[in-house]
Amino acid sequence: MTVQELPGAGASHRVTPPPAWRPRMEAAPLLPDPEPYRVLGTPAAEELDPALMRRYYAELVRGRRYNAQATALTKQGRLAVYPSTVGQEAAEIAAALVLEEQDWLFPSYRDTLAAVARGLDPVQALTLLRGDWHTGYDPREHRIAPLCTPLATQLPHAVGLAHAARLRGDEVVALAMVGDGGTSEGDFHEALNFAAVWQAPVVFLVQNNGFAISVPLAKQTAAPTLAHKAVGYGMPGRLVDGNDVAAMHEVLTEAVKRARTGGGPTLIEAVTYRMEAHTNADDATRYRTDAEVEAWKAHDPVQLLERELTARGILDEEGIREARDAAEAMAADLRERMNADPVTDPMDLFAHVYAEQTGRLREQAAMLRAELEAEGE
């Protein structure tokens, strides 16, 4: 560090900091676009892959029907709670479809649809929300971390897994999903900082659906966008129309490829809207107007893609009917299996908590076993 005497000051003044203060990269390339990136309804849509878009359309239709059926199950008492993703299906499904088999998905509690789109049995995806198990599936088998109810705690886990995979030389990418409310949690900032410093192969997908329960985004942050937060950690920020499934696919595919090839993490903000209440226990009319919801219905992700594909001759009435029939079949199967009473064992409370049970856990299990035996007698 250079020390310079100021004229007439009679004391030293440090004017040249050490080189370590300098940023690792220029900020400009990391900044997101001023407006959300779009494909549908733009000239870029001319390059759409017909087969891929038909697949996305079928998944969107199935996702919408899945949301409707899960919501109905809460009204029938078969689910304790359900956080709907109606209006967010494009971001949910694209997050699943861009991953390869060896990659990991780290969902939040609202992202059961992403898990289903990745191949998880819909009944297993909903088991947590029914209250049967902490996690209704084997995370290692499906490469899907447990659905995370605490906000943003899955993000550091995603970074740790991705960093470990890179140290082993495995070509694994972790895609971590979080809502706009989760960006106000400390775990969000810690995860981004570690990921950028380690250049971990992680993609952070923020679904900005407008509200953290009843709190609008403007009351959470003064940042220009959530994507701008990436710059402070030294990673690219991307702002994308979260209801445009073609744009979501393109941006996520690019970020996953960048992570896999050693380019480090990316923060993506998908601008979308939560069309339904936070959960079935929430009264959304207390903090937003019907007119606001109606305005967003004109930007519905299913209709956006359907209009584009039919206008371009990629999708016809038969294709639409096939997608709806497949979605109805899925819903009927889900309804039938969820209406069967689950067989539960209270001792399962102690399973899968630790690889080896602690002494205290064994004591608690023995106490419960004794109580159950006494009740049986």
From TrEMBL:
Keyword Oxidoreductase: yes
Domain Dehydrogenase E1 component: 67-343
Alphabetized SUPFAM superfamilies for the sequence: Thiamin diphosphate-binding fold (THDP-binding) (SSF52518)
Cofactor dependence: thiamine diphosphate
Superkingdom, natural source: Bacteria
Region (Disordered): 1-23
Any Pfam family: E1_dh
Listed InterPro entries: Alpha-ketoacid_DH_E1_comp, DH_E1, PdhA/BkdA, THDP-binding
CDD domains in alphabetical order: TPP_E1_PDC_ADC_BCADC
Keyword set, alphabetical order: Oxidoreductase, Pyruvate, Thiamine pyrophosphate
Record's protein name: Pyruvate dehydrogenase (Acetyl-transferring) E1 component subunit alpha
Entries under Gene3D superfamilies matching the protein: 3.40.50.970
